Amino acid sequence: MANEVRAVVSRAKGEPVSLETILVPDPGPGEALVRVQACGVCHTDLHYKLGGIGDDYPYLLGHEAAGVVESVGPDVTDVAPGDFVILNWRAVCGQCRACLRGKPWYCFSTHNATQKMTLTDGTELSPALGIGAFAEKTLVAAGQCTKVDPSTPAAVAGLLGCGIMAGIGAALNTGSVGRGDSVAVFGCGGVGNAAIAGARLGGATTVIGVDLDDRKLEWARSFGATHTINGSSEDAVARIQELTGGFGVDVAIEAIGLPETYRQAFYARDLAGTVVLVGVPTPEMKLELPLLDVFGRGGSLKSSWYGDCLPSRDFPMLVDLFHQGRLPLDAFVSEEIGIGDVEAAFTKMHEGKVLRSVVVL
């Protein structure tokens, strides 16, 4: 029997989203029905709305979510009704070559729910990142549910489902930031500031935030940046070298997804340093670098997809750090909004006025 719920739908490229009634099936084998309690408004949802990811409209938006499992299908053993969970978009298969090598965070065969959620006329919806959580209930693969401490506020927990995990993971998992390291983060929005927080957790002693917006640089300092640079008035690369004895940083994290800032990150690192790309570029973007510089500077050029996270390992750990007072996840929540306020939240996010608006149901 299908569940009728309210949800935020993007029907066509570039058009305002709409609040509609959708049908969510009861869970089948390997699936879970989750009552969504909170869902962050992420740039990825805006990319779906604007056609930057695909053309499989209508989209059911929302993916940065936490809630309570309402029911599960046959053969589901890892979660049960009543469990408080964070949703993830990387349900690992356990059988692909990455999983069998003991590196499930690289899983090449992640999966989602098999059944489709639909509009009331039967039109199938494409759930954002296989989740679709701007909805009172959503259907996901059971492996997309990660149990965490139920005393955690849902508005805080849900943010680990995407952007905050991507930033923290870019520093700790992909960049392997360690004690005494120097780090520069280009772009101090939600993901970039999470990378700054992650760098401090890893023990970095010099953490430099770079942005064009003084408001975002103020946020960066609140999350642990020891220095900030406004790239509109300073040469970011020269200033970073000045702050690091003329050498550059051990790890440079690009959290915007632009060729120009990637180039800055490349030249702002020390010899044998690491560049991590966690910002999402658009399909038409091209990067040009002298191959001799790529060779001569050594080190590593890495891409970080979802912060190279393993949700079952990383989500509970980060929630525990939050409860210990060592990770200020609540500081990322700029405002709590209703399910009908997503379009206005997109505008605020695009204008850089918020770190995260969070839909609370």
TrEMBL record:
Source species, domain of life: Bacteria
Needed co-factor(s): Zn(2+)
GO molecular function: mycothiol-dependent formaldehyde dehydrogenase activity
EC numbers for this chain: 1.1.1.306
UniProt keywords, alphabetically: Metal-binding, NAD, Oxidoreductase, Zinc
Domain called Enoyl reductase (ER): residue spans: 14-359
InterPro entries: ADH-like_C, ADH-like_N, ADH_Zn_CS, ER, GroES-like_sf, MycoS_dep_FDH, NAD(P)-bd_dom_sf
PANTHER family: ALCOHOL DEHYDROGENASE (PTHR43880), ALCOHOL DEHYDROGENASE CLASS-3 (PTHR43880:SF12)
The protein, known as: S-(Hydroxymethyl)mycothiol dehydrogenase
